[in-house]
Amino acid sequence: MQFSEKIQPQKMGFREYIEALEDERRKIQVFHRELPLSLELVAQAIEACRQQLSGTTTEYNLNGQSECSEQTSTDDPVFEEFIPIKKRASPDCDEEDDEEYYDDGEEQHSHRNKIQKEDSTNNNNNNSSCSTDKKKSDWLRSVQLWNPDPQPPKEDVPRKASVVEVKRSIGGAFQPFHREESTVGKVNASSSSLPTAKTPSSPPVPATSSTGPVSTGGNAGSGGKREEKGQGQRKQRRCWSQELHKRFLHALQQLGGADSATPKQIRELMKVDGLTNDEVKSHLQKFRLHTRRPTTMIPNSANSQTAPLFLVGNIFVQPQEYAAATAAIATSTVSSGELTTVTTAPHAAIYAPVATHPTTIVPRTQTHPSMKKSPKCNKLEDVSDHSHSEERANHGEGNSPASSSSTHGTTSPGC
DNA sequence: TTCGTAATAT
DNA sequence: GATATTACGA
User: Fold this and answer.
1) Where is the composition biased (Basic and acidic residues) (predicted)?
2) How many Å apart are A264 CA and B3 C1'?
3) Would you say residue A200 has pLDDT above 70?
4) Whole-number distance in Å between A225 CA and C7 C1'
């Protein structure tokens, strides 16, 4: 009946489609590790199309129509056709993300499925399989230097065009949205911004819950103000990667140390897109804390007693320290991250010494737990850099060579 | 408006 | 427990 008529054109479509699929498969082949499911899906699709083409099964024909032809919308059968395939895929995905695929699974979306398939040609990664996406994102992440805790992968985008009005605004873009609003305001600069500049793209650090929205509760704790400002949502976390931290240190150095530097100045010097004063301020706060705490120890305590302290800025420093620090600074320029040395040195000496405090002689040897990296951001820890800077800073105070040097890189500035 | 600090969330 | 965000006062 109509069949015959339709079939002809369809067949044509199939061939083309099959070719496209094959082409697709070749492309994916390269990433077979990353996109095993995609590969499989494509292969299956090819096979299905071929079968249909050959006319082996009537059922398939129906399906095929839907699939290949764009008319699909009209035909019911189509659904069935693809559904199975999807389902097959879905289970795999489930392993890593259930929800993702559930959506697709719905019969109603069959239509969508089709679309996805087509899209797959364009974006292998995204659509083909959720699992792949994740994997990919993972390895991509590893590469990234910093992340403004953006939102999860693109997956969302494709999936829910319908649902997500939020995102649609930006199109592919992501997080900026929350950020800007929530944050003070300067963010605006960042607006779409993202850390495009030097820093590579930004993967979500904790892809995990990143979905900010959920956290709506976030506000709860704090209070109401926030709502006024923006949406009640809490801003996404920014993870301070090594690179970012380096910049921070560099800026700090230029500004004469953590004590003298102000968040705004630091931010300006850092020249990082999307970085807000609040973020810098927060990081600075942490940095100062770390820097100071350790200080207390002053290995030299013994010496300290004997040696007169010297006030630098607000800090008391031992002459030696001070000299060293200064020198360090001078030289510091050479070594990238080192600036810290300067700053730290002084501090270290500082507080503790003041005999006034009962203080404490802390065995400086200990590393501070403080700067350790948090589980959240693993990212770059490995980086060869291990920014000494910070560590030094801390140790610096201690100055004692031995301990300082070793000290571990454990502390990662990062997060 | 910015900064510093404390409280809070993740 | 550490880190980042938010709130609040100076």
Assistant:
1) 107-120, 378-395
2) 9
3) no
4) 8
Q: Are residues A291 and A160 in the same domain?
A: no
Q: Which nucleotide is nearest to A217 (CA to C1')?
A: B9
Specify the number of domains making up chain A.
3
Cα A402–chain centre separation: 36
List, as one string, the DSSP characters of A17-41.
Answer: HHHHHHHHHHHHHHTTTT-HHHHHH
Residue A91 covered by a domain: yes
- pLDDT reading at A247 higher than 80: yes
A291 and A154: one domain? no
- Confidence (pTM): 0.37
Alpha carbon dihedral A320, A323, A327, A332, in 10-degree steps, equals 80
Residue A385 structural domain: 242-406
The pLDDT tens digits of the residues spanning A133-145 come to 333 333 333 333 4
**Residue where a domain terminates, one of A135, A165, A196:** A135
Distance A284 CA to C10 C1' (A): 19
Residue nearest to nucleotide B5 (CA to C1'): A285
Residues A260 and A329 in one domain: yes
Asked if residue A309 lies in contact with residue A318, where contact means CB atoms within 8 angstroms, the answer is yes
